[in-house]
Structures are given as structure tokens and as C-alpha cells.
Write a structure and sequence with these properties.
Number of helices: 16
Helix content: 40-55%
Bound molecules: adenosine-5'-diphosphate, magnesium ion
Number of strands: 17
Radius of gyration: 47 Å
Largest sheet: 7 strands, mixed
Structural class: alpha/beta
Shape: elongated
Length: 548
């Protein structure tokens, strides 16, 4: 019985040994069949023992500084130490992807995991871990990242290229518009210069021959000059640099005053209706320019209703533009006076609406349209602090609305503010003419002397100021705005008025100078005459100013 039991024990032990050996063999087979390094570490990680595997780690004492330096990529060492500490302190699984040095000295990526094994008291006895080679996966990931980056870079490059192409297109469209504009001006001016030159030639020939009949060439030449002046006026309006004289204006009264002119202009097969809102606000605007703009709109309406005719409506209204409505119209929020011209004509295609304000854009046959009407209206209204809008439906008709800023106050208050101070009128009034153009100075001087005025002349600001500083009698200063010698006409006038507050001033200006020098508004006692002007017109203006 005893022998039997001993034998039985021995058999059990033998069987157990066999089972353990088999289990170890199986583990060894499993480990060597896998691509994974399996390792065991002491509780404090100091002793690291490789069990088997592909040799990612050659030998291993533990993650001390020398070990780290030898096997772990410099950029990953700190991370590895931190992960070890976390695992030991938390008694939890260690897990990290990091680079290790292979036996051949190259770096590979490894995913390392280790779990703690505890004794019966819950103390960590050792760690058991596995590290698998994830170099392939990492490589694939980084290739993917590179690919993404390349793609992103390509997309960025492509959109930059596209933006550049769009820029180039915009630039070329701008150049085309400028080309169209200069071509239009050059063409019209050549015609007018041809006319003026021809007239001079024929006048000279008649005078040389001692023949009479030069008058018709003189008047033809003058006519051409007038047309040229109209052209430059329109261009200046378009460039928003014309000389404006904005005054508080009752648009209803202004429209009533031109109703007859409108009727005559559009003809009898168009019914004209004027709808003036009662209690219409005043607007601050250059009245003659507003009239000419409205007439332009009426002529466009007439052309759109030709030849059958139709109905033309000119309506006014008060408009209070809130933030949104103002933004839609590219205006500051506030109060505006709207003047709308509506026709029952052909209407406009959207692409025509889009280009209608372009200078020289016209859909009318050569000789009929200049394409300057709406560009002039646009420039004038924008310069006046307002806006123009086209509302059009094909085959139904068009409404063009002008929005002009409201003037707060009454016409009477304004008139009182502008009341003329008492001036002595009579013969021998003295006019100081300041202009750097000798021909113009001579012409102005001659015509004023013919009209009984005493004339002083100066070619620049300094000469003018020395005359103004003397005690000579000077009733009126006529000055060009752009002057040589570092002082413009406004500065001359301002300095002169400091010592002669009642001095009347008449600016004679070609174009942009008023706008450029920042004097958008003309003070009371100051007037503006726009070049080119007729000499007789100048004499009348001087008389009007001095007798006011
Ligand atoms: P023009 O009258 O000399 O052609 P505008 O600048 O006044 O030049 O107008 C430009 C273009 O806008 C016109 O040629 C026309 O095609 C279009 N247009 C302007 N007003 C109207 C309108 N009331 N109805 C239809 N089309 C219009
Ligand atoms: Mg027109």
C-alpha cells in the first residue's frame, strides 16, 4: 500500500514534470514562432531579461541610463522613462510605442507592453512583457502622412496658382476697360481737334487771301471746343472729380422746373408723369448737375421706348435707410431723398445692367450713344455722397433711382447764412487775376478791362500775396487752383481773407484741384468757374459776384 502510494506519487510527479516541460516547450515554441520579443523584468525594472524572439533587444539589464542610451532612440528616451514610472507607480500595464536600436545598429519601431505579476501579499514580483516590431506599420503610417502632406501642399499650390490666374484675369479686364476708355476719349478728341485745327487753317487762309467769310469757321471751331468741354466734363463727372457746388435743394421744385423741358425732350408719344411726394426732405446737391443727370435718365428712357412710346414717371420719396438697406446700397445708414425715373421700355438684360455704368458702354448704334450718360450720373451721384440703382425687367421696363443725402434745415436758414455783405459797387473796381498760364491771364485781363474793371495780375501765389499785402484796393481775387511755387489757389485765398475778410474770391479751375485740395464745399462769398469757360461768361460772372 505504501509502496503503491509512493509509486503513485512518483507517477503523479513525473506526469506533472512532463506537463510543465510540455507547457514550457509549448511556450518556447510559441515564443520562437512569433515575431515578438518576450521579456521578463525585476519588480523595479532594473533587471531585464530577454526570453526569446527576433532580437530587437540584444541583451537587457534594464532601463538605466546606459541601457537607454544604447537601445532607445534619443528622442524617445524621456517618454519611455516617464511611461515606466507611471506603470510602476500605478501598478498597471506599461504600454509604449518607441524606437529601438536593432542588432545591426539601425532603428526600428516597437510596441512594448508589460504587465505586473503580484505575490500573495499584492507586491509586484516581476513584470512580464512583449515587444513587437511595428516598423512596417509605422513606415506605412508615415508614408501616408507624407502622402497627405504632399497632397495638401499640391492643393495649396494649385489654389495659389488659381488665385494668381484670377488676379491676372482681373488685371487684364481692368486694362481692357482702361484701354476702352482711353480709346474712346482719343477717338472723340481727335475728331474735335481735327475740327478745331481745320477751322484755324481755313481762317488763316481766308485772312491771308484777304477774303471775308471767316465767321462760319470761327463759330464751327467754337462749337467743337464746346463739345470737347462737354466731353471732359463728363469724364470728370465719371472720375468723380468735377467741381461741384452742392446746395440745399428741393428736388420736387427742381423737377417741376424742368418738367416742360423733359416733355419736349421725350416727344409726344411718351406720357410724362411727375409724382412728387408731399413733405419731401431737402437734399444737398449741385442742382444744375442733378438736372443734367435727370435729363440723361429721361433720354435713356425715351430711347428704350422708341419708336412706339410709352409712359415715363419721375417720382420722389423720402427714404430712411437702416443698417441693412444702407449696406445693400453701399451707403452710410441715414436719411436720403430718392428720385426715380421709370419707363415702360425694353428693359435691360442682367449683363447690360452689370456694365451700364461703364464709360463708353453703349448698346446703341454708332453715332447715337456715347455710353457716357450713366457713367456721368454714377460719378456725380457718388461724388455727392449718394447712390444710383437700376431695377430692370426685360420687355417690361426700367427704373433708375438716385439716392441723395438729406439736408437738415430749411432753405430760409441757408439763404440767411449766405446773405451778401454790403459791397460797394461802381466803376474802377479792382480785380486781381492769378494764373500761371500767360495766355489765360492775358485773355481774362483784357476782357475785364474791356468791361471797365481795373486789373492786377500775378503768375503765382507769392506774387499774388505781395499785392494782397499792400494797401491797393482789391475787390475780387480770381485765382487758378493749381499754381506753381508750392502754394495753391485755396491757400492764397485763405491767407488773403485773413487780412481782407470781405474779399470776394472766384476760383477758376480745370478739374480735380478742388477735390484734391480738400475743399469739397465752397464757402459763401466764393465762387467757382470751370475751365474751359467762355470769356463773355467770365465777365458776366464777375459782374454778378461784385454786384451781389
Ligand atoms: P448711351 O445712352 O449713350 O448708350 P448710357 O451710359 O446712358 O449710354 O447707357 C448705357 C446703356 O445702358 C445703354 O446703351 C442701354 O443699353 C442701357 N440703358 C440705359 N438706360 C436704359 C433704360 N432706361 N432702358 C433700357 N436700357 C437702358
Ligand atoms: Mg444715355
Amino acid at each position: 500500500m505504501r509502496v503503491q502510494s509512493v509509486l503513485a506519487m512518483a507517477r503523479v510527479r513525473r506526469e506533472a514534470d512532463v506537463a510543465v516541460r510540455r507547457s514550457e516547450e509549448r511556450l518556447r515554441a510559441l515564443v520562437s514562432a512569433s515575431s515578438t520579443v518576450v521579456y521578463r523584468m525585476s519588480a523595479d525594472w532594473h533587471e531585464m531579461l530577454e526570453l526569446e524572439g527576433q532580437g530587437l533587444v540584444a541583451d537587457a539589464e534594464g532601463p538605466d541610463a546606459a541601457w537607454l542610451a544604447r537601445y532607445v532612440h534619443p528622442d524617445d528616451q524621456a517618454q519611455l522613462v516617464a511611461a515606466c514610472r507611471r506603470a510602476i507607480a500605478g501598478r498597471s500595464m506599461f504600454e509604449l510605442e518607441h524606437r529601438v536600436r536593432r542588432l545591426d545598429g539601425t532603428f526600428g519601431w516597437t510596441l512594448s507592453r508589460a504587465v505586473p505579476l503580484f505575490d500573495a501579499d499584492g507586491r509586484i514580483v516581476e513584470w512580464f512583457g512583449a515587444a513587437s516590431d511595428i516598423t512596417g506599420r509605422k513606415r506605412a503610417e508615415s508614408a501616408l502622412r507624407d502622402l497627405n502632406e504632399t497632397l495638401e501642399r499640391r492643393v495649396a499650390l494649385e489654389s495659389a496658382r488659381r488665385a494668381k490666374a484670377e488676379d491676372a484675369l482681373r488685371q487684364s479686364q481692368k486694362m481692357e476697360a482702361i484701354g476702352q476708355l482711353s480709346g474712346g476719349i482719343a477717338h472723340d478728341f481727335n475728331n474735335l481737334l481735327g475740327a478745331v485745327g481745320g477751322c484755324f487753317e481755313l481762317i488763316a487762309r481766308r485772312m491771308a487771301d484777304g477774303r471775308s467769310g471767316a465767321e462760319r469757321y470761327i463759330s464751327a471751331g467754337q462749337d467743337a471746343v464746346r463739345r470737347a468741354a462737354t466731353l471732359t466734363q463728363r469724364l470728370l463727372a465719371f472720375s468723380r472729380q468735377q467741381t461741384l457746388d452742392p446746395k440745399p435743394t428741393d428736388a420736387n421744385r427742381l423737377i417741376a422746373g424742368m418738367e416742360e423741358l423733359i416733355r419736349r425732350t421725350v416727344g409726344t408719344n411718351i406720357a410724362v408723369e411727375v409724382v412728387g411726394t408731399g413733405g419731401l426732405w431737402l437734399t444737398t446737391v449741385d442742382a444744375p448737375q442733378l438736372e443734367s443727370s435727370l435729363l440723361n435718365l429721361c433720354i435713356n428712357a425715351r430711347d428704350a421706348m422708341a419708336p412706339v412710346g410709352g409712359r415715363l414717371t419721375v417720382a420722389t420719396d423720402n427714404r430712411w435707410l437702416d443698417e441693412r438697406a444702407a449696406r445693400e446700397r453701399d451707403l452710410a445708414p441715414g436719411q436720403y431723398v430718392a428720385i426715380c425715373v421709370t419707363d415702360t421700355g425694353t428693359g435691360m438684360k442682367p449683363e447690360v445692367v452689370a456694365r451700364a455704368f461703364d464709360p463708353f458702354f453703349t448698346t446703341k448704334p454708332i453715332g447715337q450713344g456715347t455710353g457716357l450718360g450713366l457713367s456721368m450720373v454714377y460719378g456725380f451721384v457718388r461724388q455727392s455722397g449718394g447712390q444710383v440703382r437700376i431695377y430692370s425687367e426685360e420687355a417690361k421696363g426700367t427704373t433708375v433711382c438716385l439716392y441723395l443725402p438729406r439736408f437738415i434745415g430749411t432753405l430760409e436758414e441757408r439763404a440767411a447764412a449766405e446773405a451778401p455783405s454790403a459791397v460797394e459797387t461802381g466803376d474802377g473796381e479792382t480785380v486781381l487775376v492769378v494764373d500761371d498760364e500767360p495766355a489765360l491771364r492775358m485773355l481774362i485781363g483784357d476782357v475785364l478791362e474791356e468791361n471797365g474793371y481795373h486789373v492786377l495780375a500775378a503768375a503765382d501765389g507769392a506774387a499774388a500775396l505781395s499785392l494782397l499785402g499792400s494797401d491797393l484796393r482789391i475787390d475780387l481775387l480770381i485765382t487758378d487752383v493749381g499754381l506753381p511755387g508750392g502754394m495753391n489757389g485755396h491757400q492764397v485765398a485763405d491767407l488773403a481773407r485773413a487780412s481782407r475778410p470781405d474779399l470776394k474770391v472766384l476760383y477758376v479751375t480745370g478739374f480735380a484741384e478742388i477735390a484734391v485740395s480738400g475743399h469739397a464745399h465752397i464757402e459763401p462769398g466764393m465762387d467757382v468757374l470751370t475751365k474751359p469757360f467762355e470769356i463773355t461768361g467770365l465777365a458776366a460772372k464777375v459782374r454778378e459776384i461784385l454786384e451781389r
